[in-house]
Amino acid sequence: MAPKMISTKPSDSTRRRYIRNIIKVWEQASDDQRARGAAWYRTAHQLADFLSEGDVKTGAGVIAALSANKSWDLNQKMARKALREGVLSGHTAANLAKAAKIMSGVDPAEVLPMDAKTGNFYRCILDPDDQEAVCIDRHAHDIAVGRLYGDADRGLSAKGRYAVLSLAYRNAAAKLGVSPSVLQATTWVVWTEHNAGVNHRPALNRYAHEEV
Fold this sequence. Notes:
Elements: H1 12-27, H2 31-51, H3 56-65, H4 72-85, H5 93-103, H6 108-111, H7 117-126, H8 138-145, H9 159-176, H10 180-194
Helix pairs in contact: 1-9, 2-3, 2-10, 3-4, 3-5, 3-7, 9-10
């Protein structure tokens, strides 16, 4: 049976559990993983700058527009092909259309859903010091909830559900004294490396009793 989507209005105890789960994964990061997490969005910013020949806003927008449901490696390849060769391919028509609009000069903030994953991903790449933007992808969701959802629908298109998880990351970041984007990137590194190739075994730090 597929796991249930989390509530858009969780109890206070559930909210606290999300924060604990995020912090637990952060605490398991090695020094190398911490370093890579801290550098993640700065490196992505440099990539956006390089691919767009100095137009970071466009570069970050195209990367974000082509990021949905794609691995980071593939995301980079598609963005490079689009920005350097002018070839848009490898994604849905809707996402390719968004990238095309951005490449034509339209402000990414007018094209991307700024209260969802791709909009926040864009903000994090554009300004790695942004203290509000949090990229909640499927891994960030699973880290907070404390279990692997696999291919199950997480319902992250719902604004309320996305906001719940964004707040959990911002609150956890405040407790740790780091930026939300550094926290998200670092826990992403830990989680994806730990669970690489994992399908059904228990996820890192899974809590036995989950209120969803």
